[in-house]
Amino acid sequence: MAKFNDKHSCIPNGECEMFKVNHIARLFLDKIRDNPEYFMPMKMEEIIKERWKISVTRHQCQAARKKALIWIEKEYDEQFARLRDYAAGILESNKDSHVEVECVTTDDGKDMFNRFYVCFDNIRRTWKKTFRPLIGMDGCFLKNKVKGQLLVALGRDANNGIYPIAWGVVKVENTDNWVWFMKHLKTDLGLNDGDGFIMVSDRQKGLIKAVQLELPKMEHRMCVQHIYGNLKKHHGNKTQMKPLLWDLAWSYNETDYKRHLERIFCYDTGVYNDVMRTNPKSWCRAFHKIGSYCEDVDNNPTESFNSSINKAREKPFIAMLETIRRLAMVRIAKRSAKSHSHTGICTPYVALFLAKEHKYAYESKVHSSTNGTYKVHHGLDKHRVCLKKIVCCCMKWQICGIPCEHAYAVIIDKTLVAENYVCQWFRTAMWRRNYTEGLVPQRGPRFWH
């Protein structure tokens, strides 16, 4: 009978015959699954030497990493086959959410994945109660072996930060798939015919058509960045075109709009004709509907969200969906803590906004009139402000929901509190309501029904 001897007389030399490739792969399996780009062979070699004082070759680590990736791929293939189980897992942890897995039946009677959509109940209820009627829409490519497009719908919180509402996966970004996505979103958010709501997107033809079909009364703002990109293809040598185009987009009133449009005409008639073909009133601030209190003329917040999930889009299908859900859950939790610890009347976004208006406001002269009306004089520029009606003839205050430089000048002159003239959407109380409810953590595949 063998006897175990726990006394060692040998001197450690960093070698271990039992430390095989399979063992290394098992040790790093979870780490490679979470961050495959970080745990490369050289990093694995360093960790093994530092933590276990064992020397391994670079070739062993390469083979172990490759084996771990094979195991992970097989694991995710098995999970993809259980996509309906994953959907059921969402409903188990986040009751009353809307999850749809759509498949098509092949000629041999097998189900083949077609489309996926999810909108969590806590998110849609919170958006309907506490968010501005503004939605950003965009699509981006998936980067794993399951090719397709990820479609996202985003809101904007009281601090003007992005808030994921719903997302889905389709094979291609076309009219049929956008209509399908839009129908679900319309039902979940109670958009009806779109009246009173605003959408910001790029000029993707399928999305534009879907909005026209499903939400005909929705105000659809086009992204100026994409318009400039299209114009640049034909007028790449026109260096002054970009600042002229953005000045036009940033116009808060029709007078400024016409003045900037005339400047483009004087600069180049070819550029002017192409600009007019894009219907500039659909992407200029001067023609935004009052009430959404969003001055954006581009879709950068949505592009920013797509960038934040860039690594997730490289993962296998289920892992990608779960990563996006986890990122949304963590985002809500972090902003909940931030909003509830903030002590000001309004959000930090308002403080930054007013800081930009500060210099102009202090240099202006204010002249009182009757009925709460004032004339604000700055150089040759004169504006009419009414604090009672919360309006300024420049229209910036009405569009942004935060006092413009002219209104701010009056507020300073009368020693009033600027935050009292900010609309409800940017108050700290609303910001806290934005993040009162979040997502419930979901259990792993072992617990799926």
UniProtKB/TrEMBL annotation:
Annotated organism of origin: Camelina sativa
Pfam families in the record: MULE
Keyword match Transmembrane: no
Listed name of the protein: Uncharacterized protein LOC104709368
Span of domain SWIM-type: 374-415
PROSITE patterns: ZF_SWIM (PS50966)
Residues in the signal sequence: none
Key words, A-Z: Metal-binding, Zinc, Zinc-finger
Keyword Metal-binding on entry: yes
